[in-house]
Every structure is written in structure tokens, then in C-alpha cells.
Amino acid sequence: MEKFLTGLERFAPVTAPRDGFAAKVFKISRDEEGKRLTHMKITGGALHVRDTVTGPDWEEKVTELRVYSGAKFAPVNEALPGDIVAVTGLSATFAGQGLGAEPDGRAPALEPVMNYALILPAGCDIHRTLAELRQLEEEEPELRLVWEPRTQSLSAQIMGQVQLEIISKLAKDRFGLELKFGPGNIIYRETIANRVEGVGHYEPLRHYAEVHLILEPGERGSGVEIKADVPEDTLARSWQRLILTHLHEKQHLGVLTGSPITDIKITLTAGRAHLKHTEGGDFREATYRAVRQGLMRAESVLLEPWYDFRMELPRANVGRAMTDLQRMGARFAQGDDVEDMTVLTGSGPVSALREYPGEVTAYTRGRGRVSFVFHGYEPCPEQDAVVEALGYDPVADLANSPDSVFCSHGAGVVVPWYEVPNRMHLESTLNPPKPPDPVREAAARYVRLAATDKELMAIFERTYGKIERGEEAIRSDPRPRTEPKAQKRKPVPQKDGLEFVLVDGYNIIFAWEDLKKLAAQSLDSAREKLIERLRNYQGFRQCAVIVVFDAYKVKNNPGRVDRLGGVSVVYTKEAETADMYIEKAAYDLSKRHNVRVATSDGMEQMIILGAGALRVPASAFEAEVKTIERAIEDYLRDYNRGMTD
After folding, report:
1. What is the CB-side half-sphere exposure of residue 129 using CA atoms within 13 A?
2. CA angle 214-215-216, nearest 5°?
3. Of 98, 103, 113, 174, which has the maximum CB count within 10 A?
4. Which ranges of 100-194 would DSSP assign to H, the alpha helix?
């Protein structure tokens, strides 16, 4: 008695009274005349004949209240909290539903795991038969009917053989139907193992919609979780709600076997509508296609149903049972003995366990008992074999197409799913364009500058004649000259790849704003700062830097060259400007090396081209130096962080 009362307290808890009308639906049935009865318990307020009852998207009126005693009933006008009544006039209710202030109950513990094709009698009206069987589906929560319009076929999803016998008897007693069932197949589910973006575009003539969804794996047993993460200034809230409605309204199928998807999170991340041409149906098409396109891009995983089992059998048969369970791939443990029986509990795949109770009954001579409870879905170890056996083609399933429709030359064109990312109108939300890399931008500017130099060099040579770099240019006479046939040309020296950077020191100081301000206070400090920055630049670029300062006004100055941290610092001699030194050095060095000259002097830049070197404007050179300095700082920061971790 104590165990009974404990169980009663656990499974039939007392609930607090609800404010206003509240009721819990626990059963759907029909009377002898075929009237639909909604059996409910009133948990709050009162229910009267002619009262209006509302659901999520329906509103219906109570036509009769019945209190049953066995097969007989008595009509009443009012039902109060604690009363159990059968209500007529309601057509949209279901077992487990909460009405009024009462919330819906938990999902049923029983989950159909087998699918059986229904073989109907010859000559019967399939649509009428489907309507009649829908009545049984309402009354038996463990039964699910699946109608396939494309093949005009009907199948039943149920727990197993016992339910088949019950459904067959009910169909014969109620409707006179002699039902037969084909061989049972496992009901699979599909999920994904990675995060992907699905894109759906629907744009036939005078229609437009594009939807971007992020699909990612969910927790096992979580089902399909749907949410939106889109700013309202990019997609109106009304369109977002419509897209979410389309995601909820359909059972989306996977691309391995065409089985329903589960354990997936779907997030709306972007969408676009047209001011004139978008209609609600356009987003339905784009949404469905976005889900399928994402599934085609994802790594899909096939899931199979598992049972939790409890097995009681004689001790002499435990070894046989354990061997069988290991062969089936089940997980199990030995529980407490009950009298002379041993208990095994665990879980295993339905495909292996569904016929096992018969085997247990046979080898235990009727003493063994096996009970199952639905466990959930687990990855199928035989995925490749199952997929090949079922032979599902996701692209050929036109009712669930992964392809998109784009407008081309005034007509809709179907674009295969794998080409959609190249045609979509919105940017990817999973892999948005990366911000420009400063180092890459600097390299790009350098390449563009080099190309410009080549063009300028061509203009220079058309104007002043060809520049000969492999030997001394003949400047005294610009007219073409021919050499004696017996005289051989000297071989043109090959460049060794080392790069020299010539820097006009004072020109750069007064072109860079920070150095210019420093020079106003101390020219020596500005020189030292420039040289220090060029030392870092030289070390990073692995080039040779020569910075030249004018000293031509200094009397009797012979000029000098200093080496400061690897940088060559040149002070020109009397009557020699920095421009003159750089021109001569560029001419000499460019015979064997690549040479760049940093200056903002326009005339000097033109002269440099004639010397065969590349010019770099002071502003571009400053941007290049700053980019390198930032790269060095980032490296040192990351390095120091790694040393302290």
C-alpha cells in the first residue's frame, strides 16, 4: 500500500487552482453516432454549454457537456474544477492539450519507430479511407499516418506489431476496412555535424525573396530549434515572422534518406524583399530552399531510434542474453535480482531489439520478460549501407528542392544549389568579407606602383630615348648608332634580387607630419627618429636602406657615410645635393639590384625613372613604414603574452 501511495503522489500530483477557465484534454473519442468527443478535466474556473473555447489559432463553441458512467452518460450544463466531462463541438483539440490557463502537457513518452505501408482493399476510395483513418489517429496518439501525394501512398508509423493488431481491429469494427500492412521499416532521422549557411533565392518574373539561414548541430534530443538574429533595419519584423512561420510549418527532410531532420539549430541571419514584387509565397519558397541548400552543404549524420529496455530472465539465461546484447551493439548493466530472476537494464538500437522479446520468450520457455521505452536517436553505425539501400536522391525530390530560382533576361532560371553562393544577392553571414589586411594592402599598392612605373618608363623612353641599363648609356649623341659587326656587345649584368631603398632624408622629414613637428623643435631629433624607424623597416623588409641628407652648403665638407644599426646614413659633400647623390647612386645600383627611391620631389621622381629605379611617393612610403611598425608591435605583443601564459 505504501508503494502504491508513493506512486500515486508522484504520478498524480495535486495542482494549484488556476485563475479563470482551465482544462486538460486527456482523450479523443467518438460516440455511436460518430460525434467527436473531447474528454477533459476542468482544473480552473467553469465551463458551460455554449461557452467559447479558444486554441492557438482556432475558436469553437461548446455544444454539449456529458458526464460518462461506463457506456452511459448524463448531460450537464456546467462543469467545475475537478469534474471530468466529454465535450462536443470541438474539432481541433488533441490529447495532452491545455485549454485556457492550463499549459500543454509533456510530449508523449511513446514515439513511433516503425513505418508500415498500408495495403488497402481493391476498389476503395483512398481519400475517404484516409479521412476515416485520421479519426483513429486522433484517438490513438501512438499512431501517425503519412500520406505521400507524389506516389499516392499511405503508411502508418507505430511502435510495433501489437499496435498493428489494434489498428487493424479498430478499422474493421469502425469502418469495415480490411487493412493489410507491408514489411516494417525503421523510421530514421537526420542531423548535421558542422555549422553551415543555407541560402534560398526565389526570383521568377515579378517575384523576389532571398533568405540566409545558419544551420548548426543541436543537443541530442533537442529537436529543431528555430530563432531569428536579424536587425530590423535590414529586414522588416513582419517578413522575419513570416519566415519563422514557414520554418515551423513544415517537417523538413534530410538529404541522406529523406528522413525528418532533428537536433538542429536554425537561425535566420539575413533576408531581402522587394518593395513591389515580394509576396508571402515568395518567402515560403526561399525559406524551404535555404534549409535544403544548407543541408546539401553540411556533413549529414543518419540517426536511428533506440530503446531503453528492462529484461527479467532466469539466472541460467543471463550469459546468453549478455552475448546477444553485445552482438546487437547495446549498452547494458546488471541490476538487482528479483527472487530467482536476474534484471538487465540498458539501451540499444530498435533495429536489433524489436524482434528480441520473441527470442527471449523462446529460450527462457516463457519465463523471461522484456519491456521497452523509447530512448531517443543515436548515430547509425551502418550509415553508408542504409543510405545506399534506400537510394534517396535529394536533387530529384522536387517537392523539397535545394536549388534556387534567379531572374535572367526577364525569365526565371533554376540555379543548382552548389552555384547559389556565387549568384546570391546578399553577403554571406557565416563567412562575411574580411576587413582589408594592411600588409596585403601595402603589397597591393606596391604592385600597383610598380605597374605605374613601367607605364611612366615607357612614356619616358618614347620622349627621351631608350634607357640602356646593362652598359654605359651614350648621352652625348642621341642619334641611333651602329656598331661594327666584329665588335661584340658586353653581356648584360643579371640582377641579384637584393633591393636598395634610397631615402631623401630632409624631404621625408618635412613630408611626414610627425617628423615635421619634431623638426620644428630639434632637427637632430627628427633625423634620429627617422633613422630609428628606417632601422625597423630595413630589418623587417630584409633590404638595404640608404638615407641621404643634404650637406652641400657646408664649406670644405668632404662628405661622409655612417652605419647606424645597419642603415647607411650619407651626408653629401660640398656642392653636392641629395638629389644629385640619389640620382647617381640609383643609376649605379640599378645595374645589378632593384632600387626604390622614397621622395616627394616631383622633378627627382622623373629623374629616377631615367636612372632605372622605382619611385615611391613620401605619403605611400610613410603608410608602408607604419604598416610594418604595426606588424612588429602585434608580433611582440603576442610573443610577450605567450611568454607570460
Report:
1. 22
2. 120
3. 113
4. 126-139, 161-175
- Go through the chain and tell me how many residues it has: 645
- CATH of 302-386, picked from 3.30.300.30, 1.10.10.10, 3.30.70.240, 3.40.50.2000, is 3.30.70.240
Q: DSSP secondary-structure letter at 283?
A: H
What confidence tens digit (pLDDT) does each residue in 465-488 have?
555 544 443 343 444 444 444 444
446-466+494-629 is a CATH 1.10.287 domain: no
* CATH code that applies to domain 17-100: 2.40.30.10
Q: What is the mean pLDDT of residues 623-632?
A: 84
Chain CA centroid to CA 543, Å: 45
Query: Please, how many CA atoms are within 13 Å of residue 436, restricted to the half-sphere of its CB?
Result: 9
Kind and range of the H or E element at 371?
A: strand 369-379
The fourth-level CATH superfamily of domain 114-187 is Elongation Factor G (Translational Gtpase), domain 3 (3.30.70.870)
Cα separation, 289 vs 406, in Å, equals 12
Residues 6+ apart with CB under 8 A from 90: 36, 38, 53, 60, 62
Question: Which of 196, 165, 203, 159 minimizes the C-alpha distance to 181?
Answer: 165
Nearest-angstrom CA–CA distance, 203 and 408: 9
The residue ranges of every structural domain in the chain are: 17-100, 114-187, 191-298+403-423, 302-386, 446-466+494-629
Reported as a single tens digit per residue, the pLDDT across 166-201 is 888 888 888 888 888 888 889 999 999 999 999 999
Same fold yes or no, 114-187 and 191-298+403-423: no
> pLDDT tens for residues 230-248?
988 889 999 999 999 999 9
Using alpha carbons only, give the angle 432, 226, 92 rounded to the nearest 5 degrees.
155
Phi, psi values for residue 405, rounded to 5°:
-120, 120
Q: Are 307 and 375 in contact (CB under 8 A)?
A: yes
Measured CA to CA, the distance from residue 360 to residue 151 in angstroms comes to 39
User: Is 261 within 8 Å of 253 (Cβ atoms)?
Assistant: yes
Q: Cell 501489437 maps to which residue?
A: 162
CA distance 367 to 341: 9
Sole residue written with cell 516494417 = 184
Summarize the chain as % helix, strand, coil (round to 5): 35, 30, 35
**What CATH number labels 191-298+403-423?**
3.30.230.10
